[in-house]
Amino acid sequence: MPSVSNFRTIIGRAWPGATAGLVAGSCALAVAELVAGLVRPAAGPVTVVGGAVIDRTPAAVKDFAIRAFGEDDKTVLRLGILAALALVAAGLGLVAPRHRRAGAAGILLFGPVGAVAALSRPDAGPLDVLPSVIGALAGAAALYPLAARASPGSGTAPPESGGGGGWDRRGFLTAAAVTAGASAGAGVLGRLLDGRQARSAVASRDDLVLPPPASPAPAPPAGARSAVPGVSPFVTPNADFYRVDTALVVPRVDAGAWRLRIHGEGVSRARVYTLADLLARPLVERDITLTCVSNEVGGPYAGNARWLGVPLAGLLAECGVRPPSKGGRADQLVAGSVDGMTFGSPVEDVMDGRDAMLAVGMNGEPLPFEHGFPVRMLVPGLYGYVSACKWIEDIELTTFDAYDPYWVKRGWARRAPVKTQARIDTPGPFARPAAGAVTVAGVAWAQHRGIDRVQIRVDGGPWEDAELAAQDTADTWRQWSHRWNATPGGHTITVRAVDGTGRVQTARRTRTVPDGASGRHSVFVTVT
Question: Is the pTM of this model over 0.85?
Fold first, then answer.
């Protein structure tokens, strides 16, 4: 068994090399971010590698990440990438004092890895390889002299163990401090350059004044908002609205520079629109509930907001587009985002009279950046991955046979109408309410069909009708509540909904892949 002195000797020999590797790795990242600030912020190595990882992650693993980490999944991924880079850099640093060329060559490999990841991005340009390549060159250039000062025999300081020669402690610490300081400066400058574009976008949003709608949303009917504590509010505040997307860095798009192109199969008059063009058109305002296909039964990824936008069917008709039912050649609308993401929606659904729109406002203000500023698309009744394109910049008309959008290529269904769901918001799982009258309450949704009934049962007993809040529209969720005479002990409460067509929510439990989860939400409580 190694003695404490031997352990100290091992650490004493290892820490200079590991430190050299970490400093060199930090230098590589800092210089890469600086170059990305000059080229394109989204071309930074952590961002492009993270995007490549997301693209190649199986749907089931992505589904797990969303369940486990929620909206923090991207932060976890970024931290994981940084941790992996730190481990590799430290390992190369351990090798470098005795094999300087090998250590520097290892750092140089960061360049092609990042470059390949950059070129794999849908929105990549040829200059996107520069941050990774130049960053790797800087990291290798930093490691070589640091390793030279950390190598045995490079200085007159006493050796850490009984042999092998000393190393240049003072020279190493000085070089490491200078390199770390320069890296920090490069990182700060890179952030400032990144922020320059972001500041322009933020200013364009701050200056944007949304015109009043030509068709305002009617006020929700009296009784549409439940007063039961713990129930999700009828309108979800912007800050609380769910966010599920693949963007590691939220795009900051300048409203003045934004353009939307409509083109493709069956488009007789291709058009390019500016934001000013859209705002000059008659706008509609509607209350619409959105749901993410990654939402598990009883999950949080649904929200209701008041949206302001341009009717999408009118824009398409202006370009000569007709739905298939009226002889149109295209049956799929592919919406493209500034970050290269693609979404495929049935043209028939977009043009069947529902309130499909290009939204510019959310709950009385311009879209937040996280939710698609300056313009996003939404189609009531469809899951977000086939309709809710944020940061939209391109609409191409095509066919389902000719093109598979991003998520379809990864095993999700081409068509994905929202499934009927009901959720228990209160009492929560494993709650301990007191015996007697207990209010069970929550929300239910079946966009474009509406909710007709909600029922609950306790411990497999008979289904009982819940009291429904007034329905706003068929495109919004509906709050409900039920007074339960709770008796002491453990109980399972289950809820189901009946949509506006009379179809009862299925009890068959499925996962989110390929077209959304199904089943009935239950909670277990202990009545005291």
Answer: yes
